[in-house]
Every structure is written in C-alpha cells, then in structure tokens.
Amino acid sequence: MPRLASTQQSCWDAPLFSMAYVLHIILLLLYCDTIHSGQSLVKVIEEPTVLSPQTIQLLCNLSDIPNNPPTVTGYWTKDGQEIENSKEAVNRNNDQYIFKKTIQAADVGNYSCVFRENDAQVTFVFDAPVMKDKRDKPIVSYIGDTVVLRCTLKNTPKTWNWYKVNNTEKDLINVTVSPLKYNIVIHQNVTKLSVLNLTEADAGTFICSAEFDIKSIESYLELRVLSLLEPLKPFLVIVAEVIILVTLILVWEKCKPGQDHNTATTENVLYTEQTSKLTHSDSNGMETTTRQRKTEQ
Amino acid sequence: MPSDVTDLDYTPPDGGWGWVVVFASFISIGFAYSFPKSLTIYFKEIQEHFIISYSEIAWVSSIMMATTYAGGPVSSVLVNRYGSRPVVIIGGLMVGVAMMTASFATSILHLFICVGVIGGFGLAFNLQPSLTITSKYFLVKRPIANGLAMTGSPVLLSVLAPLNQFLFDNFGWRGSFLILGGVLLHCCVAGCLMRPIKVKLAVKKLTHQTATEVDVTHQTAETVNIQGCVEKVNRFIDLSIFKERGFLIYLVGNVVMLLGIHAPIVFLVPYAEQHGIDEEDAALLLSIFALADTVACPVTGFLASTGWIRPNIQYFFSFAVACNGVCHLTGSLLTGYVGLVVYTVIFGSTWGMVGALKFEVLMDLVGAHQFSSTVGLVTVIECVPVLLGPPIFGLLVDIFKDYKFIHFTSGGMLLTSGVFLFIMNYYNYRQLENEEKASKKEIQISSANQLPAREEANDKEAPVNMRSEEATYST
C-alpha cells in the first residue's frame, strides 16, 4: 500500500543544519490507508510561518509503492499551476523516494509535490501571518469626536503604516504633516491610529499595513462618521412613546375612579400594633411558625 | 381565616390589578438586574476611546451594581414615606437622564458618575419598591407573583443583549447610550402602573373571648413617643429587625451564598473556551442559561405557593441553594459540549429557583409591613459579597490557571450555605414552637391565678351582706 510519509519540524524549534538561512523541513509521518492509485487524492496541508527572506528546502518522502519501481516521477506545483521544469525522476533509495525542492521564502504561495504514480500530494502553504481581531463591521463615530483604529498582529513587523483610501488610491497618513488630525501609536505588534476632530470627510476605509521583509500584510477598517441627529431620531421616538404611555395610564386611572381592584378592606380585627415586633402568619390559613403569632379572633 | 392572616390592616387583593403590578415589577426588576450586565458589550470601544485598561472600564458595571444595592436603605426610606409609585418614576427618570448625559461624556470619570452612581441609584429606586409593592398586593399568591416578577431579570437580559449589539453596530457607543436612556424611561411607565393600595377603613369591633381576655388587659395604649436618635432612625428604617433570630439566619446564609453564586456565571464563557468550545457556541451557553432561568423562576414561584411547600418555604429555599452547590460540584465533571449544555441548563434552573425565592423568603420572615425597611438593609449588606465575589474568584483563576477551582469553591460555599440555612431554620422553628408553648402556658397560669382572686372578692362581699341582714333582723 502506498504511503506518503511526511514529517515536519517547526521552523523555529531546531533547524537540522546550521547552515545560514537554510531550513530543512522534515515531514511528519501520516497514514493514507485509503489511497488507491487513481482514486481520491490525499491532501495534507502544512502551514509554517515565515517572516524573513531565506532559502527553504521542501522535502517529500514517498514510501511503500506497490511494485517498487526503480524510479517514480514527481513534479511541483505552485498555487495549483505546475512549475516549469520541475518534473523529475526520483530514484528509489531503500524503499523510499525522496523528492526535494529549494525555494526562496519571498516566493510565497502554496507549493505541492505531486507524485504521478499514485497522485499523492502534500501541500505547503506559505504565507505571511494574518491580522488578529479583525473587525468586520464598520466603526461608528460622531462629528467632533475622536476615534481610535487598531490593528493587532501575532508577530512584530518591521514597521507599521496607515493609509487612507481615496477613490481607489492609497494615501499615506503622515503624522508630522497633520499632527492635529492624526496620531499614531505603535507598540510592537499593536498599532493604533487616533483620528481627532472627526468630520464627514474622514469617513471611509483605512488600511493598516504591517511591513515585513518579504511581504506587507494589510487589513481594512471602515469608519463611519455620523452626526448627532442620527441617534436623536430614534431617541425622540422612544421618548414620545413613553410620554404617550404614561399619559394614557394616568388618564385612564383618573377617568375610572370607582375601580375596586386595588382597594382592600379592613376586616373585623382587633388591631394590635407593636412597633418593633410584628407578628405575621400567612398562606391559606395555615400556620407558619416562622415567627411568633398573636391572633385575635 | 382571612381576617387574621396578615399584619397589614387589610386583606391584599391577590389578583386583579395586582397582576398588572407584577408586570410592572417584572420590567423594573428586569432592568435593575440585567442592565449593568448588558453594558459590557460597549466596554472595548470605550476602553479604546478613553485609553484606559479593561479593569478601569469594568468599574462602571461594578459601581452601578454596588450603588443599586447600596441605595436600598435610601429607597426604603422614600418608599415608607411616599409609597412605591413616585419612587419608581423618579428612579426611571434618574437612570434615563444618567444614560443620556453619559452619551456626551468626555472622560471616564463622567461615566463613573453618570452611569455608575446616578444610574445605580435610579435602578435602586426601581428594584426595592417593585418588591415592596408586590408584597402589598399579594399574600396567598405571593410566591407566584414574586417568581413572575423576578423572571424579568433573565428575560430583559435576553432582550437587552441583542438590542445593545444592534445599537452598537449602528450608532457606536455614544448614540447607543442616548437611545438606551430613552429605553430606560420605560421604568417610569412601569412606575405609573404601580397604583398604591387604597384601604377603606371599616368599623373595628372588639370581640371578647376568655382565652384572649388577658391579652386585652395587658394591652397598654401604645402611643409611641418618639424621642432620641435611635427612635428617630427607627421611624425611617426599622433597625430592630436585627434582633430577630430568623432574620439573622437569613442574612448570614445569604452573604455566604452570594459570595459564591456569581462567579460561575461570570466565568462560564471563558471556562467553555478553555475546554475547546469556540466563541459562538460559548455565547450560546449564556442564552441557554437565560432560558433555563426564565422557565425555572415562575415554576418555582408556582411550586412555592402550593399548600405543601408554602409553610416550609424556608426549607425550600435552603434546598434550592444547596442544589446550586451540588450542581457546581458535579457539573465540573461533565465534559464536552453536550456536558456543558446539561450543566448550563441545571445551573440556570437552580439559579432561577434561588432568584424566585430570595425575596419571597424574606417577606415570609419579616412580613409585608416591615419588608420595605428590611429589604433596604439586606441589599446594602449583600452589596459586599456581590462585589467581592467575582474579583476574588478571578484572582483564584489567575493563581491556579484552571476554572475547576471556581466550581469547587463556589459549589462548596453554596452547599455550606444551603445546609446552614436548613439546619438553622429547623432550630429556629423549634425555638419558636417552644416559645409559643411557653407563652400559652403563661396565659393559662395567669388566668388561673385570677380566678381565686375573683372568688375572694365575691366572698368579701358576702359577709357584709350577711351582717346587714343580721342588722335588719336585730332591729
């Protein structure tokens, strides 16, 4: 039964070779029992994190092919497209077929090694890290108010930049040019842009860009600026409704003075009052001994 | 016998307009309990805006809850003086205006004062009068009324949570606060519905019976001359309640209970997330909790009004508290999402049971007449465990890094509290029975002593008569 073996070691844990900028990725052992040649592809996806430019060697290890041919053919794909001249005949080496490729980390994308014989494939997804705490909905603020836009990343980038989208163009926000309007604070992996004295023109999309050596990661934040009249309308509707209800209730009460529902009569009780210790018993005439009870009948 | 079942000098209607009052209390109590909790959705944004830490913004909720509890005595005084209706209306106005002002806040201090202090007092003026007026309108069906009124808390929380989310997405925190101010004005509407009870004074007849004759003679006309500071305070709030044994038992049991009861709900979502449940499913747990609470509250009220449980309502309450404890102790053993859901359902139900009975039991202890003053004192004392509980447990989490300890500690506290209440109430009932028997004996003894005295008096008259007869004979 063909088995595609792959082992992976985390990029930062312990590189096998200490050769500068070369990382060996050893692939994890996985089972693909259900693989039959020509049938469903087993896709194994690994996602290492890469932050700086370096040379990376990808290694695929295929073992246990039926018939044990002396060579197998394999090729690499990037992002689903076959890479030119990547087809190679891999020689058998102690019942294993080891297929290597060296790439630059800057060439981010999805790399897959595919073996023609049984269509087994392993995919390496190389991409830069994603933004944390993404805000899908627009941030709402008001004219004259201040708003703080914030981007967080798991790793610390080289620099952060903020842009404002202006009709499909990105304008860099420069704090020194307009210090009364913008303020940028950077704390390693967190950046905050404060927009002061908001106006309607400030509404729109802002982009925070985390710049790494290989790639920049961007995140979009939408800002909406409202005038105070906007929430005032529903507020006034609600207040009007409350006033109407209150008026109705009080008028109804005044117009029906003979309601006996909330009146109660004193019965023929000998009224004994003690200011401090009052006695009480309740429920259906059943005596509760929760408190002392003096009754007059 | 309806005539002697209450220390109020009237028979409560137990229905009619009373159900409208229950609805009004439902709204008031609902806002009072759920509003501080529902504000947490705005905290992140406000935290960014004012550049403060999360613990600072969390103070807003804490101050609001603290003032709601601490404002109890003030509320009691006003209700004793003016009745429930004006106090609730003013409370609604206060909290509405507070939120409106808060929407224009320029610093976190404004929020502390507006939302925290003024809003908190406004809610205090809603909570306590609602409970008082329920006790004035109901007697026989009072547990049901209380159960229904307390259901306001989970129901309004379920309404406020998505409403707040909607408002926040569309209007940001400032606009939302403004609109919430309007929403809270509905407390005024609730206040308008709380019509005061009008009592028609009927002619009082004196009835004599031998057993009670001595009581009549022992009655001194109690014109209470109010002198001194203590008496003046007693006019507003009855502090002598602290001498009552049953009340002290209730207080001690409640303080221990409240220390432990809030923490599991506060940490429910992080606990679920620690077990690998994702955020949305964990938030669903809270909704399940609220649903279980909504069902359990009125059902418990209904159960408590049945003939079998009503006389033993103190035991029922201690049973509910103990159930809560057992639920936490065993619930922490359940794993998986299904296990967590089961735990949440049971937790919500027991929480609802305790909530429905909490004030009913107090009314049962002190009676409707004194309830108004007492509940103020109770809430101000309960303020301490309510505020201290979650932070202490949070500290435990930080130290042990495992939420299991919360469940064990909280479960242990609740179980202890429940058992304590059970045992002490049993003891209290026994003491009361003994005291009653002793006082009955005294009555019998003193009336027996009076008989020979009367016979002597009769005998003294007789020889006089005989002598006069002799005199007539002699002449």
TrEMBL record, chain A:
Organism the protein comes from: Triplophysa tibetana
Record-level Gene Ontology MF annotations: cell-cell adhesion mediator activity
User: Does Protein transport appear among the keywords?
Assistant: no
Extract the InterPro entries matched here: Ig-like_dom, Ig-like_dom_sf, Ig-like_fold, Ig_sub
Please tell me whether the keyword Membrane is annotated for this protein.
yes
Domain of life of the source: Eukaryota
Which CDD domains does the UniProt record give? Ig
Ig-like domain span: 39-123, 129-218
GO BP term (any one): axon guidance
Q: Where is this region: Disordered?
A: 276-297
Q: What is this protein called?
A: Embigin
What PANTHER family does this protein map onto?
Answer: BASIGIN RELATED, EMBIGIN
Record's GO cellular component terms: axon; plasma membrane
Residue ranges of the TM segments: 234-252
Q: Where is the composition biased (Polar residues)?
A: 276-289
Keywords from the UniProt entry: Immunoglobulin domain, Membrane, Transmembrane, Transmembrane helix
Automatic annotation (TrEMBL), chain B:
Its annotated compartments are: Basolateral cell membrane
Q: What InterPro entries does this protein map onto?
A: MCT, MFS, MFS_dom, MFS_trans_sf, Proton-linked_MCT
Q: Where is this region: Disordered?
A: 450-475
Q: How does the protein associate with the membrane?
A: Multi-pass membrane protein
Q: TM spans, by residue?
A: 16-36, 57-78, 90-123, 175-194, 247-271, 283-303, 315-334, 340-359, 371-393, 405-427
Which part of the chain is the Major facilitator superfamily (MFS) profile domain?
20-429
Any one of the GO CC terms: basolateral plasma membrane
Reaction catalyzed: 4-methyl-2-oxopentanoate(out) + H(+)(out) = 4-methyl-2-oxopentanoate(in) + H(+)(in); 3-methyl-2-oxobutanoate(out) + H(+)(out) = 3-methyl-2-oxobutanoate(in) + H(+)(in)
User: Which controlled-vocabulary keywords does the entry list?
Assistant: Cell membrane, Membrane, Symport, Transmembrane, Transmembrane helix, Transport
Q: List the biased-composition ranges (Basic and acidic residues).
A: 453-475
One term of GO molecular function? symporter activity
Q: Give the protein family.
A: Belongs to the major facilitator superfamily. Monocarboxylate porter (TC 2.A.1.13) family.
Protein name, per record: Monocarboxylate transporter 2
